[in-house]
Amino acid sequence: MIKKRVLCCSIVLSVMILSKLYSTPNSMAKKDPIKRALLAQIEKQKEAIALSPERQKEAYYRSVMFANEQVPLHNPSVERKFERYLANFSFRKQQSYDLHKKAAKHLPQIATILKSYGIPEDFKYVPLVESDMNPRIVSHKGAGGYWQFMPATARLYGLKVNGNVDERKDLVKSTHAAARYLKSLYKEFNDWTLVAAAYNVGGGSLKNTIRRQGVNDYYYLNLNRETGSYVYKLVSMKQVIENPYKHGYKRYAQTYDKYQHPNERNLL
User: Who has greater pLDDT, 56 or 157?
Assistant: First the structure.
């Protein structure tokens, strides 16, 4: 009975707040950023409700971006791959509470470092896909740390890797090294999606594939299974982390929002 009364009170209060917002003069709403944000959210919700399921899907697909470029989901093959990996990464599939907590804690710091090098923010998802943000993971080929650097590549971009020290396990230092590596790959390919693919398979190997096939668009290249799925994994990870309510992840949504504005500290 008490729960019902609380629920009724909440509904009435919400109606009163919305009524007050809509009755507030536009000039007053413009001066109040909180009211402005609430009104904008209400308008978005109204638009979403008004759209048919097909239109909602189209609108969602248009919003799917990687490195500031739209993913060509109008292509049936691209759509199938995206949907498959999105399902694999979704909260309902993985029950990934821990993944979201790691994202909330580390991604703002990684994004700040990448930004200082001019690297698109979406590359902050690479450590989540590569190592699950676990610096102790080492692949069968010897790649290790947050960004899964091979020892030779790590040294080439300024990290110490020897019997006593392994800076691949240092988040800040390895992220600076990764940013330098990504920037060098961009000079080779001049395309951020191809940079992501090259990060996975190696710049030389990707160049050979492009030359052999005569295609320089990631989504239309015939790549090995791991590299052919790599960008889709990054995009799917981005969608799940940045849209926690849409993909069944509500518990830590506010926690992630909290870490989008970390307290004043030197992240570089």
Answer: 157
